[in-house]
Design goal:
The complex is a heterodimer. Chain A has three helices and 13 strands. Chain A is of the alpha+beta class. Chain A has one domain. The radius of gyration of chain A is 19 Å and the shape is globular. Chain B is α/β, with parallel strands linked by helices. Chain B is 44% helix and 23% strand. The longest helix of chain B has 28 residues. The chains are: A alpha+beta, B alpha/beta. Chain A: Keywords: Signal. Chain B: Keywords: Copper, Disulfide bond, Metal-binding, Signal.
């Protein structure tokens, strides 16, 4: 007979094993390693993607903590590789408002996936449609699906950085944390994958129950 | 007592981690579908386009094609997708759009030609099927970025296994370009609307 006290840890072990397998297998999600050496608001826990009901691509970046005021150079940065390197920049300080800035750089072989210097994005249409929403310990960035070229590959990662805006240029002086650290930005996939939803009869049945 | 409360808080933290992982899993599995009319059509590789054309060989070459992926042993997702596909072919025909529907099996080991032929008939006579194997199937799936996962399929179990697959469906123009991407389960009404309201797309 299994005692109630031992059942729960066992279930936990099994659920964690299954979850880890599934999360790693899904290129649309990055689960980040916790780093207690960092301030909680600079420590990224996860990045997830979703498609909203009004056809927008939603990135949700969660951190271990949040703060109202502090070092103004600290930013949350979402890097998208999609033909070019695109960067979406949001201040870590909630008190600095819900503004999001977009920068870009040419994608070149042998260049770092996150360049130190980027120029303000010329895609004005896209910049206008960008939205950011503060969540509890995180942010949600929304961009229109129309922006995506589904014939191209897609990749994303999130960082916390010290960065300075000088005119039309963004200079990144320090990376505090990277969601996909140690995975060398290898989650490159076809943009169509963002729309793919995996289904199985078993999953549907359990939903109906 | 302090020691016990420390252990308890440690256990709660562990439970919290487990719950967080489960929640993340649920979030990643529950993404919404979307119908996307592509601004820039995606040309299919000639091999994939030729395979699709073979299904309706001898028929009007100016046909649009609706393509869904699945497997005949699937109990409810694929039948629902195919019922929608059949309904859409009829809706397209009613709008005088030359349209055919193709079911591509991702499980050729169980889906023989005889099985597929019988299976397709249950959804009407206006659908065709495509059965590819091995590397050819992998290349065809890659052309559409179709994801599949087989569970408990092994040398000792080649009959009773589960399959996960993407329910994304594709509308292909007569030149072999992907023009619309949608969810075969949830977005069929969007495609019906497209047939009625976006006539210029089908005249292009």
């Amino acid at each position: 007979m299994i005692r109630p006290g031992t059942l729960l840890p066992l279930l936990m072990v099994f659920s964690l094993t299954v979850s880890a397998m599934q999360i790693d297998a899904d290129p649309r999600t990055i689960v980040s390693f916790m780093d207690k050496a960092l301030s909680p608001e600079l420590d990224i826990l996860s990045v997830t993607t979703d498609i909203s009901l009004d056809d927008h691509l939603v990135f949700q970046v969660k951190t271990r903590g949040e703060r109202e005021r502090g070092e103004a150079a600290d930013h949350l940065l979402l890097r998208i590789l999609h033909g070019k390197v695109y960067v979406l920049l949001v201040p870590i300080n909630k008190g600095d408002g819900d503004k999001v800035l977009m920068y870009e750089s040419m994608l070149q072989p042998d260049y770092p996936l996150l360049p130190q210097v980027l120029e303000q994005s010329h895609e004005n249409d896209m910049s206008r449609h960008l939205k950011v929403e503060r969540l509890a310990r995180g942010v949600e960035l929304t961009l229109p699906l129309e922006w995506i070229d589904f014939g191209k590959e897609f990749s994303f990662d999130a960082y916390t950085v010290s960065a300075y805006v000088r005119g039309n240029t963004l200079e990144i002086s320090r990376v505090h944390d990277q969601a996909g650290k140690g995975r060398d930005g290898s989650n490159k996939f076809s943009a169509i994958t963002l729309l793919n939803k995996l289904c199985t009869p078993q999953r549907l049945r359990s939903r109906a129950d | 007592m302090k020691y016990i409360s420390k252990i308890r808080s440690g256990i709660y933290r562990k439970y919290f981690s487990a719950m967080l992982a489960i929640l993340l899993l649920a979030a990643s599995a529950g993404s919404e579908a979307a119908t996307v009319l592509l601004r820039r059509p995606i040309p299919l590789l000639p091999e994939a386009a030729a395979r699709l054309n073979q299904v309706h060989a001898g028929k009007d070459p100016r046909m649009w094609q609706l393509v869904v992926f699945g497997f005949a042993h699937c109990k409810d997702v694929c039948p629902a997708s195919l019922a929608n596909l059949s309904m859409l072919v009829k809706a397209g025909t009613a709008e005088r759009i030359r349209l055919s529907g193709i079911f591509v099996t991702i499980d050729p080991d169980r889906d023989t030609d005889a099985t597929l032929s019988q299976y397709i008939k249950a959804f009407g006579t206006d659908l065709g099927y495509l059965r590819l194997e091995g590397e050819e199937l992998e290349r065809f799936k890659a052309a559409f970025s179709v994801e599949t996962a087989f569970y408990t399929k092994n040398a000792g179990n080649m009959l009773n296994y589960q399959v996960d697959h993407s329910t994304t469906a594709f509308l292909i123009d007569p030149a072999g370009n992907i023009r619309v991407i949608f969810d075969a389960l949830t977005d069929s009404t969007d495609i019906e609307d497209l047939f009625r309201r976006n006539r210029t797309l089908f005249e292009s």
